[in-house]
Amino acid sequence: MTSNPIIRWTLLALGLAAFGCSDGWDPPQVGGTGTLPAVLVGIGVTPHDPKVTLGEELQFIATGYYDDQTTRDVTDTVDWYTTDAGVIDVGNGLDVEGKGTTAGPGHARVGAMFFELASNEVKVEVTEAQVKTLTVSPADSTLHVGETLQLQAEAAFSDGTTGNVSGTVLWFVSQLEGPESGAVAVLDANGRVEARAEGQIEVVAAYEQSEGTFESVPIYVNVVSDEVTIDGADIRILNVTPRPSGTTAQVTVTIKNSGGSAASAFWVDLFLDPEGEPTPPTTGQAYEYVDLLEPGEQVELVLQMEDVALGEHEAYVLADSFGGVEEGSLGEGNNLWGPETIELTGDSGPLGPDLGITYLSAFVQADQVLYLIDVTNTGDEASGDFELGVFADPGLPPVPPAVPDESFLVSSLDPGETVSVDLVVRATPEDFWQSWVIADSAGQLAEVNETNNTAGVTVSP
Predict the structure, then answer these.
(1) Residue where a domain terminates, one of 317, 344, 371
(2) pLDDT 10s digits, 224-244
(3) pLDDT (0 to 100) of residue 33
(4) How many CB atoms neighbour CB 323 within 10 A?
(5) Taking phi first (over 0 means left), then psi (-120 to 50 degrees means alpha), and beta for anything else, what does residue 68 get?
(6) Contact in structure between 152 and 232 (CB atoms under 8 Å)
(7) DSSP-assigned letter for residue 19
(8) In sequence order, which residues have a C-beta less than 8 Å from that of residue 31 and are 6 or more positions away?
């Protein structure tokens, strides 16, 4: 979502924001040193862009972001709304806060408000298709005591599409190793894991529907001591490419996780002509949400602002704008890009198609590897047909034209259109594969930007 008309956050008066301080606040005495409460600066709604079968329910979660970089669950406090109750209705009553009830097939947007403070809106799709397979990512993870990780459940539906079902599945956790009393980790209704003690847990997601219950392959989370040093996540902005057109300020942003553990549930924001360099927690005029970036994985995003004044503008892009991802010692210094000059001249002539891999993940399943791929045309002209290719373990990054191990012919994508493709390679790695996916692997299309067609992912047995 890059051009939401609702402002995602506004600083509230201290008296209003004091509700978010769970311990309360005593005003300072004369001559004393009382502490002001944390100020609520944003509300994030998850799951991100979920898909749900008609007749099922969907639990939304609202997370409050505060200016001291803490977060709290405010699902029961906010006012929920939907843009189309004929598709999905969202409860505000006691014990049903954030509970979505499906009413008919279609699309709607769901968000939350606290007084004048608005959340992001998530796009919800209600479908009559049934779930056929269920996958949880990341497959295996290691957390410090006190760390959190957002798991995501993705379903393949009977109509050939895929979707995020993290808010619809039931999450089951089994403790395999750890203390006799107390939990190694706890899971909320949206699949967020909080590590509490050393040990290991097994997590399974289950999707219940009229045709039966589908369970995912178990994934495992190891929790290690908070004294153990491991390589954490490292979110990096690799590149920002301005794409101005008419009065629209658009940038294409490439984000990579160069760390050793997954980065989940963070925002990437565009700032135009800010008073100073933006620092977390804050929000820009346009923004996109990233569900999950595995170690070594990268994603391309398009951030766009409409009706911008003509002339030169200074743009900044900030990854993890709410400061919610715990990064390693070097990881916090490469989240900001800018200033980048964007010049708007009013010329809105066609630039051409621009294919980019906007999502990539891979899962080992028995004797095969499943690749989940999203390709988006971020250009302003239709792309024409093209080949999407998977290269399982080529040794070196392939360069188009190249012959993939598996491929899929994609019909022409219109500007802004995204296609989701599942490709299967019927083999598994003995050690690991460095796999690559290329949009237009045959190299037949002329594009505005040829650097964003390739994405890589590490596949471990």
Answers:
(1) 344
(2) 886 544 567 889 888 888 888
(3) 43
(4) 20
(5) alpha
(6) no
(7) G
(8) none
Q: Look at residue 110 and tell me whether its pLDDT is greater than 60.
A: yes
User: Which tokens hold the place of 70?
Assistant: 């803490």
| One domain, residues 135 and 121 | no
Identify whether 339 is preceded by a cis peptide bond (ω within 30 of 0): yes
Contact present, 353 and 382 (Cβ < 8 Å)? yes
Does residue 205 lie in a domain region? yes
Residues across the chain: 461
Same domain membership, residue 362 and residue 444: yes
Q: What is the pLDDT of residues 56-74, one digit of tens each?
A: 999 999 988 887 767 888 9
Query: How confident is the prediction for the chain on average, in pLDDT?
Result: 83
Number of domains in the chain: 4
DSSP state of 56: -
Detail the DSSP E strand segments found in 47-130: 51-53, 57-59, 61-66, 71-73, 79-82, 88-90, 99-102, 106-114, 117-118, 122-127
- Note the pLDDT of residue 25: 34
Residue 205 shares a structural domain with residue 122: no
Q: What is the CATH number of the domain that holds 276?
A: 2.60.40.10
Query: For residue 217, what are its two tokens?
Result: 């392959």
Report yes or no: 269 and 278 within 8 Å, Cβ to Cβ. yes
Question: pLDDT band for position 348 (50/70/90)?
Answer: low
Query: 80 lies in a domain?
Result: yes
Given a contact cutoff of 8 angstroms between Cβ atoms, the answer to whether 251 and 243 are in contact is yes
Question: Where is the domain boundary, 224, 248, 281?
Answer: 224
Residue 64, pLDDT score: 86
**Residue 1 placed within a domain:** no
Which residues span the domain enclosing 197? 131-224
| C-beta neighbour count of 454 within 10 angstroms | 21
CATH code, domain with 103 = 2.60.40.1080
Domain membership flag for residue 229:
no
